[in-house]
Write a structure and sequence with these properties.
The protein is an alpha/beta fold and about 450 residues long. The protein has helices at about 5-20, 25-50, 60-75, 80-85, 115-130, 180-185, 190-200, 215-225, 270-280, 295-305, 320-335, 340-350, 435-445; strands at about 85-95, 100, 105-110, 145-150, 155-160, 165-170, 205-210, 235, 255-260, 285-290, 310-315, 355-365, 375-380, 390, 395-410, 415-425, 430. It folds into three domains: about 1-75; about 80-175, Beta-Lactamase, CATH 3.30.450; about 180-360 and about 395-445, Rossmann fold, CATH 3.40.50. Helix 1 (about 5-20) crosses helix 3. It is elongated and about 80 Å long.
Length: about 450
Amino acid sequence: MNPSLAAEIRTLVAEDLASEAGAGLRGDDRREFARQCIFEHLDGLAGAVAGESPAIAPTEEQAVAQSVLDALFGMGRLQSLIDDEDIENIDINGCDRVWVTYADGSKELMASVADSDDELIDVIRSAAGRFGLSERRFDLARPELDLRLPVGSRLSALMAVTARPAVSIRRHRYADLTLGELVDLGTLGEDLASRLAAAVRSRKNIVVSGAMNSGKTTLLRALAAEIPARERIVTIEQAFELGLDAARHRHPDLVALEARPANVEGEGLISVADLVRRALRMNADRVIVGEVLGDEVLPMLNAMSQGRSGSMCTIHSDSSAGVFRRIASYSVQAPERLPLEASNLLVAGAVHFVVHLDSDMHEIADDAGAQVPPVRSLSGWPGEAGMHHRFPSQQARQRFVSSVREVVDAEGAHVVSNEVFAPGPDRRARPAAPLRPDTRQELARAGYAAPVAGFPA
């Protein structure tokens, strides 16, 4: 593709869009208008050079058109990576240091996504102004950004506090799925899926825990799919990521709330904690907090224990037992400075189940049982010509539920819980202890039945 031709067409189409701003073109109509303008200008340029040079090839036209559309409506050269369904994570350490991690666990260094770091910052700043509920800043005064991209990916960016701009994009491969589909993917077994589905239907409060990139958001979506369609849901996030509002067939009565940073004068801040408190006045049957990261934990627990049963959230933790320590640490840092004993009492009165996710990597073998050799290679990037790298690529990442705890009570400095599913030899969740009798009866009324006699239900 000819970069100068693409830049020329982009300028012309931008002028066309500006001239049509008053016509009220929005969304797909605006994009289609831009596409028509692109090919009109390409036809004009081809006619102007007829007899002097060959006409523009169709493949060149398509490449230029896609480049212009990506620049005007997407994320420029980054857009092709965002649209690649095989890519799970994109990590950028400067415009020419672009690492992608594929779903199979392989990792590859890609071509530059901008001609300079300043251009990369401009691309991110443009996205901050166009995507999301309201314009967000990305500059020296506010050098951090969290943003949901139109395709549902989550973008996190930093500048000024790093030598070069750093951008991480997490692409969600499963935007709308059920617990049954997670069973097919190997995330959990059928009995555990049935038990969790009954827990949601019987309005148990559930905390989903795990490390980064362990599948917490995916599991939360699948749990939410069990919520009856008649119920009103309010979701609350720092930056939109759950995307439950897109699944209208499952959640027809849903309001998605997003926190808002302060403006340049330091005004207008609306935190996740503020939104959780506001949700209590929105006639919500259930409140779902996408990710608990700080002092919003107290209003979240209050919401769970004050008539909003059936609510859910995710939290970072290295184990199911570690969730209680994490909640306690957030509580003591909150403005209320809640002591450990009070925090534990709040947890005991609010949380019914903690579901913990883990992950591992395993080699993929071919049909003959031999290990498949690495297939993705890295070579010849700027400044490192001649170097050749082969990463151990043919590894599959498996995310799975490893532990489930039922919260029983609190005793001073400890939250009392039963690990009803504990890690087995392969670290996957295995039945370990029976549920409390009253919980078992509630889940049974919601449709759960132990699969065999003597099973610890």
